[in-house]
Amino acid sequence: MITFAQRAARLPRLGVGLSGEFNVAAKGIDACWMKENYPELIHFYEYGSDLERGLDEGVRRWAMAGLPVTYHFLDINLEEQIDLDSYWLTQTKELASEINAAWLCGDAGRWHFGMRERGHGMLMPPILCRESALETAENIFQIEAETGMTCLPENPPGIIYLGEMHILDYFALVADRADCGLLLDCAHLAIFQQTRNLPPLTALDNYPLERVVEMHIAGGTYAEIDGYPYIDDSHSPVPLPGTWEILEYVIPRAKNLKAIVFECEHNAPEECLEVFEELNSLFPAESELKEEEMAR
Amino acid sequence: MSHHTLQKLLVRMLFDEDFVSEVYTDSERALTGLELTEAERGQLLAIDRRVWRHDPLRKRRTLRALVEEFKVSTTIILAETRSLASLERFFSSQFFHRAVHDRGSLGLAFSEFLLDSCRNGAWKAPQIPDIVRLEAAIAGCRRTLAREGSSAVSELPATISDKSRVKLAPGYDVGSFQTNIIETIQHVERYLFEMSLMPAMALCDDAPKLTGLPEIDQQKKVYLLFGPGATGISISNLDKPSYLVLYETKRAVEIKSLLSRLGIVSASARRAQDILSESLENGALKIVG
Questions:
Q1: What distance in Å separates the CA atoms of residue A75 and residue A29, rounded to the nearest whole number?
Q2: Which neighbouring-strand residues pair with A232?
Q3: What are the CA-CA distances from residue A218 to residues A23, A69, A245, A251 (Å)?
Q4: How far apart are CA A112 and CA A75, in angstroms?
Q5: Where is A16: in which H helix or E strand?
Q6: How far away is chain A from the Cα of B134, in angstroms, using its nearest Cα?
Q7: Please, what is the end-to-end C-alpha distance for chain B in angstroms?
Q8: Which pLDDT belongs to residue B99?
Q9: How far is B51 from chain A (nearest CA, A)?
Q10: CA distance linking residue B112 with residue B128, whole number of Å
């Protein structure tokens, strides 16, 4: 049995990447255009999709150029074993293989309520309890076994979290049981901490940072409903201070970190350049690391 | 309570403000049968009540997805009621709550809601019930096709005896409707096309109105076959004998018993055999276990 540590050692260091969804180039940032114009800022593309929409022309072009990709699923309830059927497994593997994705990843909770059908889409965090964590772990174990690909569960966004666990303890349990890597979304974590009135770094001391393979960062917006304050996961170009604090704390401690995605594809490219530059200075790409080593 | 039940409860609360009120004011009654522990009940009620309203467009987005499959019937309903609330009532209905709780199809639950509202006299246009039934038939075909397999004609067994059982293939259905149902659909689709040219027209007093729907004659019927086509589920006309034969095959039925039953009803056994053969050959019917 290959352990997570062994598998992690084989995963490529991808550097800083851009997120995108089906046909995003028509209304947001075209990854290929971005790569052509700012080759030093983005090194891979995280493509998010579902079986209904599949691959778009943009990700095919990117993959045809031999550039690195990861596949972010948007249609599996990792918390719900009944949702994980052989059709989803085979089709998802096919899509990811077609673009030579380095790994699979996605929010671990619910992407839809009930069956996978039109009108049922709704991203919800898992119920933060032990039973849910164990079911999620079983699903990840099965995905990795049947696709032969690494699957990284991501802490999802939410304003309503039920369950007695802290979300980081939940994912620590998932990772331990599935012996899997993790995707830590810093913006989602900052939102969670705010909903529980906790400082941004709470519970990171018990979280297995050595299992963090990928991180997400994105802008958020302070909002309120009838006076109730919350953070909207708006993916604006400006990450909130709590999000930066988490990112900067985790990077030097995450020994198996391979990739950081700036989720900003719905903004204008020039609004995002500063953050991309900052991320590259915090987490240089493999090629830049080699150049630095050579120079030394 | 399992985390699955708790998730379903959250979904119901996120869509239905009346239900949220009930949970906060009379949780004993609202949560009956869900077997929440005291801790779970405490966690749920500790959530600030305002949070449930954080996404005011949630219902609209879901309604939009539902209306895509029921666009003709819902257009006639909205033209009559001039009230979005008439459709948004769905989210407070037993049909919505049951679909979420039972992990059922929201689209099919929506069709049940529409038909139930017709029966209860919520809207008057006589065209609505048949249009809903037709749209529900198409929605059902899409789902069985997606769930049970491809539309490709499967190979028939070498021998088919009268003891073989037949059933409509996945993605197929039949129905009888008001004679002018296709004209009604075309009429509404023309109106929707015109409105799509400039949706803001809806704000104008002189905007196009949905008027002049074709009259209906309940005495005359048209028989339709739904089946997989190049771009989704297609509709074609059937003659009455074919409809009667295929109607019997909505559930798996032995050929012998089907023929004897139909012999009594109308079609001659010979004609019924021909219909069965044609339908097996073109893939509308399949032989089942």
A1: 23
A2: A221
A3: 20, 19, 13, 16
A4: 7
A5: strand A15-21
A6: 18
A7: 39
A8: 96
A9: 7
A10: 13
Task: Give the span between the Cα atoms of B138 and A91, in whole angstroms.
Answer: 25
pLDDT greater than 80 at residue B264: no
Residue B101 CB-density burial (10 A; 0-12 exposed, 13-18 middle, 19+ buried):
middle
**Is some CB atom of chain B closer than 8 A to the CB atom of A228?**
yes
User: B17-25 vs B38-46: helix axis angle to the nearest 10?
Assistant: 120
Average pLDDT, whole number, for chain A? 95
Say how far apart CA B6 and CA A10 lie, in whole Å.
39
Residue A115 token pair = 């069956």
In whole angstroms, give the CA distance from residue A14 to residue A257. 9
Copy the structure tokens of residue A92. 């998802």
Compute the distance between CA of residue B21 and CA of residue B18 in angstroms, rounded to an integer.
Answer: 5
Interface test with B, best of A82, A112, A122 (most B CBs within 10 A): A122
Q: How far apart are CA B60 and CA B65, in angstroms?
A: 9
At residue B230 the predicted structure's pLDDT band, cuts being 50, 70 and 90, is confident
Residue reference for tokens 């699979």: A104
Local structure of residue A126 (DSSP, 8 states): P
- Whole-number Cα distances in Å, A120 to B62, B65, B87, B96: 7, 9, 17, 11
Q: Which residues of B111-131 are buried (b: 16+ CB within 10 A; e: fewer)?
A: bbbbbebbeeebbebebbbbb
Predicted pLDDT at A205: 96
Q: What is the mean pLDDT of chain B?
A: 91
- A2: tokens are 């290959």
Cβ(B287)–Cβ(B280) below 8 Å: yes
A249 reaches B (C-beta below 8 A): no
Burial-class residue B57 by CB neighbours within 10 Å (0-12, 13-18, 19+): exposed
Chain A residue at shortest CA distance from B37? A163
The minimal CB distance from A119 to the residues B7, B107, B143 is found for B107
pLDDT band at B288 (very low <50, low <70, confident <90, very high): confident
Q: Alpha-carbon distance A77 to A86, whole Å?
A: 14
User: If DSSP codes are grouped into helix, strand and coil, which group holds residue A179?
Assistant: coil
What is the complex's ipTM, to 2 decimals?
0.91
- Report the Cα–Cα distance between both ends of chain A, in Å, rounded: 39
B219 phi and psi angles, rounded to 5 deg: -75, -25
Q: Give the tokens for residue A233.
A: 């996961």
**Residue A124: closest CA among chain B residues belongs to which residue?**
B7
Query: Are the C-beta atoms of residues A106 and A81 closer than 8 Å to each other?
Result: no
Best B1, B2, B4 member to test A by mutation, with max A CBs in 10 Å, is: B4
Residues A248 and A217 sit within 8 Å (Cβ to Cβ): no
State which H helix or E strand residue A167 sits in: helix A167-178
